[in-house]
Design goal:
Layout lengths: L57 H31 L4 H32 L3 H4 L10
Length: 141
């Protein structure tokens, strides 16, 4: 029907009477792949973990693992040295965690302020940069 209550000549056909496909029991949070996407998902499985090269000997990959372990041990030693240096300078892990927590809170508050400045700038039809002086903000903030 149009705005005046008349039916238009081009009416949609009534939906065909079809029985919905039977479905098995549903698992919450899981969906079946949509029919059109099945072809795109039908490829061979590719593991995110790289497989050893066909010409590579098992010993070579074992050497690689040992090299990775050695690098990690060296990195751990460097970090332990930095940690002991910071501790000797009077820093504590609890103080550092508190400081990090305060930085997260500061960043959250700053994000809200930036969002509000952005909304105000849209309302006024100006850029956020133009609002900075009005609120005593430095453009580097």
């Amino acid at each position: 029907a149009d705005l005046r209550g008349r039916t238009s000549a081009l009416a949609l056909d009534p939906p065909a009477q079809q029985t919905p496909p039977k479905r098995g029991p549903r698992t919450p949070g899981l969906r079946r792949t949509q029919p059109g996407l099945a072809k795109a998902c039908g490829g061979a499985f590719r593991s995110p973990r790289p497989s050893p090269k066909s010409g590579q000997a098992a010993g070579a990959s074992e050497n690689s693992v040992h090299l990775d372990i050695q690098k990690l041990k060296e990195k751990r030693d460097v970090l332990d040295k930095e940690l002991s240096q910071l501790t000797s300078e009077g820093y504590s892990v609890d103080e550092l965690e508190d400081h990090i927590s305060q930085l997260h809170e500061y960043n959250d508050i700053k994000d809200v302020g930036q969002m509000l400045l952005g909304k105000l700038a849209v309302i006024r039809g100006v850029t956020t940069k133009e609002l900075y002086p009005e609120f005593g903000l430095d453009t580097n903030d």
